[in-house]
Amino acid sequence: KSGSGKSIFCRHLEKSLWDNYSNDSKQPIPVYISLPKVYNKNNEKDIIFQTLKGKHINKEIMEAICEKVLFIFIVDGFDEIFDKYNENDNNNEKYFYNRFNLNQWNANVIVTCRSEALNDNDINTTLIGTNKNQR
Q: Residue 135: inside a domain, yes or no?
């Protein structure tokens, strides 16, 4: 629900995961992504690159590590961009994993969203997608 502390928890989770990574470089690298700050409906496929660029990581390094290094993307605020996301047809692709080009990364993904912002059908087609094995 709104105001329940999702963003604060995500920041805390990112810090905890960074601490884990600092102690063991085999742990995934956490990347916090505030969707309301980085979402651009004209550039959905590059949302991860744009986020990492904002953290001063250049494209050559990103391309070299995207499939080799394990990441955990903490995607916060999906509900805040959902209307714009939903209006953007993007070749009838609804599933955010495909639209954000997450398949090119070796990553797990955590998404926050207020429960009242999406109905069950939206959750199934947009967040879960046709591949029910995604976690």
A: no
Instruction: Specify whether the CB–CB gap between 66 and 52 falls below 8 A.
Output: no
What residues contact residue 4 under an 8 Å CB cut-off, 6+ apart? none
Residue 133 lies in a domain: no
* Distance, C-alpha 72 to centroid of its chain: 9
pTM of the model: 0.85
Task: Supply the DSSP string of 56-76, one letter for each residue.
Answer: T--HHHHHHHTTTS-EEEEEE
Rounded CA-CA distance 53/49 in Å is 6
Sign of the CA dihedral running 68, 72, 73, 78 = positive
Task: Answer whether residue 133 shows pLDDT above 70.
Answer: no
- Is residue 55 domain-resident? yes
> Which contiguous run of DSSP H or E holds residue 21?
helix 6-23
Number of domains the chain contains: 1
pLDDT digits (tens, 9 = 90+) for 47-67: 888 888 888 888 888 888 887
Sign (positive/negative) of CA torsion 102, 100, 109, 61? positive
